[in-house]
Design brief:
Layout: H1 2-10, H2 15-31, H3 36-49, H4 55-65, H5 73-80, H6 84-92, H7 99-108, H8 111-118, H9 125-134, H10 137-145, H11 153-163, H12 167-175, H13 181-194, H14 199-202, H15 210-227, H16 231-243, H17 249-258, H18 261-272, H19 276-284, H20 289-297, H21 302-318, H22 325-338, H23 340-343, H24 350-378
């Protein structure tokens, strides 16, 4: 009788009163001990209210049901396809929603709706994959920021392919602790590609082409990622570089001159087919024939072998000096430049230019380290 009276009243009540009554009925349905016919009548009344012409009534239903874990499926489905303001409380709340409906929402919903789905706790791997595949940029950034969500490396790669030049996506991805090194590298590479359009890159201050500056930034980011990586991570990065055709002589020389020997060793091992230990031993005796054999097997041209051998020998000479790492790298680059004629560097094209750039980079990094040390002494 109460529900029947409610239905008779609600058809003629003003909008604000109907919204308040709808919310009260939804809460009574959820939290009162309704049984039998009372439960059925209340459910029927709530279903009737789903078609109310006044948005405020449907918003009241969404707000009330948004705090519940389980609600009738037909009511849930209707509210989820209503206006964003109706659906968002359900998507952002504790309501249990079938994964198929969430995937449909991601494929067809607004940016707000997709972002709410991406921010839900306990997102499955398959739903995360769907978000990475079809959702908008902001939803993908929200998913990456959701620390409770497991995302496969393949899904992360898909996000990078779609939104790799987005600052929000980059920041969210780089803050996650479960991102494989090769995916970080993909992200940094995509992001640095966008720098080719930056005014400072296009400006008159730079004597080099934008694509050369971007390539330099990408190689620096590769070295930076490799510095503190585990052996397994470095192997994964190297495999990614080789498969994606990003493994170059320029990158290998940068690794050698900067003393990034974990990346150099793993790269030469992958390219040559020799084991890591064998490559390590060859690098330990750069003047011997074994290093030349490794370099040849790795596909490096014969004319570069003397350059790599002298670089490793120079590192052995500076290794125990009581100076910072970048000061050592600067000395190594200087040694190679000083031997330019003997090593035939003038015939090496990009590698010759790279040595001078690396010498300048090492000088700046060493100066930064020195200044930081001086400031720490003052403090």
């Amino acid at each position: 009788m109460i529900i029947k009276s409610f239905l008779n009243w609600v058809q003629h009540a003003p909008s604000g009163s109907r919204a308040l009554a709808a919310g009260a009925l939804a809460r009574a349905f959820l939290y009162s001990d309704l049984e039998g016919s009372e439960y059925d009548e209340a459910e029927a009344a709530l279903t009737f209210l789903l078609d109310d012409r006044d948005l405020a009534v449907r918003v009241a239903l969404g707000d009330a049901f948004g705090s519940a874990e389980v609600i009738p499926q037909h009511i849930l489905s209707a509210l989820l396809v209503d206006e964003d303001v109706v659906a968002l409380p359900l998507l952002s709340g504790a309501t249990i929603i079938p994964e198929s409906e969430l995937i449909d929402l991601v494929a067809t919903g607004s940016a707000q709706r997709c972002g709410a789905v991406a921010s839900r706790p306990n997102i499955s791997v398959s739903l995360a994959a769907a978000i990475c595949e079809v959702a908008c940029e902001s939803a993908c950034a929200a998913l990456l920021s959701n620390s409770k969500t497991e995302i496969t490396a393949t899904s992360m790669e898909r996000v990078v392919e779609r939104f790799g030049d987005s600052r929000d996506v980059k920041d969210a991805l780089m803050l996650r602790e479960d991102v494989p090194l090769q995916v970080r590298h993909m992200m940094l590479r995509r992001y640095t590609e966008s720098l080719s359009r930056h005014p400072q890159v296009l400006g008159a201050r730079n004597m080099r082409a934008p694509e050369q500056l971007v390539a330099d930034a990408q190689d620096r980011s590769t070295i930076s990622l490799a510095w503190s990586a585990s052996e397994k991570e470095v192997h994964g990065l190297v495999e990614h570089l080789v498969v994606s055709a990003q493994m170059t002589s320029v990158l290998l020389l940068r690794a050698a001159v900067t003393g990034c020997f974990n990346l150099l060793t793993s790269s030469l091992a992958r390219l040559s087919g020799h084991g890591d230990d064998e490559v390590f031993d060859a690098l330990g005796t750069p003047d011997g024939p074994s290093l030349r054999r490794v370099l040849s097997a790795a596909g490096l041209p014969d004319r570069t072998h003397a350059l790599f051998q002298e670089c490793i020998s120079s590192w052995q000479r500076v290794e125990n000096m009581q100076i910072d790492h970048w000061a050592k790298s600067r000395i190594v680059a200087g040694d190679l430049i000083a031997l330019e004629d003997n090593l035939g560097i003038e015939d090496l094209g990009d590698l010759q230019d790279l040595l001078h750039r690396l010498s300048n980079e090492a000088a700046r990094e060493s100066a930064r380290a020195h200044v930081a040390e001086m400031l720490s002494d003052v403090a």
